[in-house]
Amino acid sequence: MKRHYFLGLAAGRKVGAAKQLFTIGRKKHLVALEKALSKRYDGTAILCKNGRSGLAIALGSYFEKGDGIIVNGFTCYAVVEAIEAAGCVPVYADITKEDLNFNVATLKKLVDKSVKGIIIQNTLGNPVDIVEIEKFAKKNKLLIIEDLAHCAGVRYPDKREVGTVGVATVLSFGKDKSIDTTSGGAVVLRDARDWTILASPRLCDSARARWYPTLAAWCRGLARLHLCGALMRLFVKLHFVEKSADNKLDTSRRCTKWQAKLALEQIKDLRRTGEGKIRDYCLVNERDKCLKELKKAGYHFDGFWYERPVSPERYYKKVNFPEKECPVATEVAAQIINMPRYYPRTKLEKARKIIKSYLVEEEK
Ligand SMILES: *Cc1c(COP(=O)(O)O)cnc(C)c1O
């Protein structure tokens, strides 16, 4: 039987292992990437170590310590980490099941004097109702920051491209993000103050990013022999492999030159609407049972993202998430199954059949 593996380790498959190992980047690629991002998103681009560092830079340049920042109630720990690093306070907005985003009705309940900004995330590539949210933000004097980790290249319902609306735009080049060079990121500030060129990355971070697709491929290969768990744990322990959520926030360093070269290629490819969309997902009842059944058929879909409103699980307790105020996000986190987009649809046919009998809603 053919087996399909989608392990707890993010795939990081946009760039082939060999290409990632041997691409040579130069200073001109850093400059070209900055230029491309500055032009596309109409501001001043700063290349960063990862998305969360870019977000921390954006927050730090537009907000004061103690400001409340509205954030999607169904998000990644990286976002919360950045808000806290900037000294701001996350204000979680519950989502709807239709698009996993907040809407204006929810936002209305959250604004008070301390709230000064909104981070728009366009969860898993589903765009928010930007026209209404923009009106609302203007009326309440809230600044919008757009986080494109899930959605680079996607368009809002009014046809504007994501990343062209707010005061700042953040990109992640992390594993399985819209643009994927294993790590790295950028921020574009529409109104740049105190802009500085960041320092070169640490050699060990660069080496880790270089080797990630290779080591992940080995783990996946050995999965057939049921050795992958042990090998993966060993790689993580030796710091050869870093889990996405553990990538450290550091606003003093940039991505590498070879990452700039690879990111540049991917950004040029984001021409068509929706290409940056990162995941297909569906909501199921009895997820544990469903995952077990999938596993039996060779689909290891556990270790997916968003098993908690703020994922991953191991960081969830830290954030003190208000489950009572975000019941939909809490429920969705218990129901969601993500399907990798890098598999051809035919390979997932059997998985879809299994999932079908558990579905809560139409598949997105
Ligand atoms: C992954 C992610 C980021 C940034 O992640 P980094 O690992 O710091 O690059 C930001 N926002 C969201 C919603 C994400 O999922």
Number of strands: 13
CATH top level of the largest domain is Alpha Beta
Which class of secondary structure composition applies to the elements?
alpha/beta
Quaternary? single chain
Our measurement of the CA-to-CA distance between the termini, rounded to an integer number of angstroms, reads 28 Å
Average pLDDT confidence is 88
**Element order, helices and strands?**
EHHEHEEHEHEHEEEHHHEHEEHHEH
What low-confidence regions span 5 or more consecutive residues with pLDDT below 50?
none
* Helix share, percent: 25-40%
Strand order in the sheet with the most strands: 2-9-8-7-6-3-5
Report the radius of gyration as a whole number of Å. Answer: 20 Å
Number of discrete domains:
2
**Any idea what the CATH architecture of the largest domain is?**
3-Layer(aba) Sandwich
The molecules bound to the chains, other than polymers, are:
pyridoxal-5'-phosphate
Describe the structure.
- The protein has a seven-stranded mixed sheet with strand order 2-9-8-7-6-3-5, with helices on both faces. A two-stranded parallel sheet has the order 1-11. A two-stranded parallel sheet has the order 4-12.
- The protein is 37% helix and 14% strand.
- It is built from 13 helices and 13 strands.
- α6 links the parallel β6 (115-120) and β7 (143-147).
- The mean pLDDT is 88.
- It has helices at residues 17-22, 27-40, 51-62, 77-85, 104-110, 130-139, 203-223, 228-237, 257-268, 287-296, 313-319, 327-335, 349-356, and strands at 4-5, 44-48, 68-72, 75-76, 89-93, 115-120, 143-147, 168-172, 185-189, 280-283, 299-300, 310-311, 336-339.
- It has two domains: 17-189, Aspartate Aminotransferase, domain 2, CATH 3.40.640; 279-363, no CATH class.
- The protein is α/β, with parallel strands linked by helices and 364 residues long.
- 47% of the residues are buried.
- α2 runs parallel beside α9 and α3 runs parallel beside α4.
- Residues 50-52, 75-76, 78-79, 121, 147, 149-150, 172, 174, 177, 185, 244, 247 line the site of pyridoxal-5'-phosphate.
